[in-house]
Amino acid sequence: MPLGLLVYALLVDRDIDPLQLFLVMVTGGVVGLGTLGYTLGKKEDQLGAQNLALRALSDRLAALSTTDPLTGIPNRRALDEHLADELARARRYGTPLAVVMVDLDHFKRFNDKYGHAAGDSVLRHVAQTLDAEKRRGDTVARYGGEEFVAILSHADAAAAQIWAERVRARLANTAVEVTDAVLRVTASFGIAAATSGDKAPASEDLLAAADRALYQAKAKGRNRVMVAPNESPTPPAAIRAGVAS
Question: 163-185 burial string, b = 16+ CB within 10 Å, else e?
């Protein structure tokens, strides 16, 4: 704008007052800079809002990729990540760590007799029960199908067995209401504990040991807790005390 006034004055052969020209130039510069600053500010606000939206979308996608859509608890991918982290921490600090594998008893019968919708309700009920029983720092995830896994940080085999017995009893004593039926659900539990220090096993070895213990529980009649053979079981009196608490 100041440059335009100057050109206009020259074209019409008009005398230019230096003071007036200075004031016009200053005023025009202030207005121009203000306009430019406002425009840049709006652009920055828009970019900031876009970055926040992209970050929120990224967080949502990350959460979806690690969450089981049916039960709302972490999925197998999240389990693998958490277990690797917890084992690394156990090795570093020499703290105990236990894995509990849970498998619903006769789950196929629920689906065959009452339908998959009822089976889904049972899975959600079990997931909610496990999630409600976990301690701060623990992770409960759906392993696949009707199997779940709990990672119990700072827990040895004895503590994990007490925890599993409490959850087993709660599941067995709680009814699940579905359409036209009230179901009783039981589950079998297999426990494996990591040795503290550098001898802590790899994730897959720990899960495999828990899985073997789980199948022992199935073979012995289901609706029970078994500990991997290399771990010492807790005396029954201690288990009952833990379940009662």
Answer: bbbbbbbebeeeebebeeeebeb
